[in-house]
Amino acid sequence: MHRKISLNFPDFFRNNELIKFCIVGSFCALQNILILYYLTSILNFHYIFSIFLQMLYVNTLGFYLNRRYTFSVQSSQFWQELFKYHTVMVSSFFTVSILMYLLVEVMHIWYLSAFILLTIGMTIYNFLAHKRWTFKKIIDDKEH
What we know:
By secondary structure, this protein is mostly helical. It is built from 5 helices and no strands.
């Protein structure tokens, strides 16, 4: 006896790209923590090397999940989109690093408060960058 499990979310959650983007982001954030811990504490990799490997893997996973689930992209521009995705994520990483320094060291804001504030801001930045650039839907001229 097999029963199909179905999650019936309201249309707002199923069709809202920002909600789906945040779900993917939360999943990827958990992966970041688990992989960083495993590589650094279990395999004894240097934490900088662990961060590099973890970012490469998790950002590629995030690309795939956002491409298929969040934005439902079917284009043949896979490699261009992957490059754009990693470009956005690297720019986000450098932006957070610089802003964390300014908020914590210069403005003396508690590091966790600064990180939470930046996470909210960068989620919006990343969502818009991926929606409008990485996964921008190309409208066929014939449809006009």
